[in-house]
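Lab notebook: predicted structure, single chain.

Context: the supervisor wants predicted structures on file for every construct in the current expression panel, including those that have not yet been purified. This is the next one on the list. No modifications to the sequence; it matches the entry in the shared construct table.
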Amino acid sequence: MAGKTSITTVLFDAGGTLVHLDYSFLHKELRQAGISTSRRAIRRAEYASRAAIDRRLHGPDADTDETRRRPYFAVLLDQLGVEAATAQRLLKRFDAAHAQANLWRVMLPSTPRILRALRDRGLTLGVISNADGRITTILQQCGIEQFFQVVIDSHLVGVEKPDPRIFQLALAQTQAEPEQAIFIGDIYGIDVLGAERARIRPVLLDILDGYEGVHCEKIRHLAELHAIV
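Prediction complete. Output recorded below exactly as produced.
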């Protein structure tokens, strides 16, 4: 494993890592559909959806970020016990809302402070996101786009994680060698395995400590990066 002093470049996933699902929007839509639940329950259901994505990644069929989103929300609604007909109506509503404004758009208040501290230490920061062409806009709206030397949006470059080529694009633009970089993401089969294929040191952001037995480093908050790099 690379030593702390060798890291010059810190690369981040976006959705689920820097920006998070808008639980308040989902809570409102569920309430309007007659579903009584809490934001905490929605959050836990979302983590079950992430596990479902990992299982799909290891299945026989090719998958893309776009085709994963509907199963993601379907699993979330199933975890909440939403019956099938209501779930279908909600899925259409979620799809329409996401098309209008990406639903991964909420940032933790501590994130800018963490990014600023990393940058002030002389580290180069970047983003590698399986996205739909809007990730730079979302980072701008959150007020953190200026911290990143490079933002790689899979929709714009034509390749997505876990393909190592998308990581190599970021390395080329930051002029870093793989052993000089670290990548932080929240889905094992997309972020960790992708980084490993590019020979980049992965760190799994596992906020609810739902991943057990994984062989990579784990953190529960981005602030823990200060002790890693």
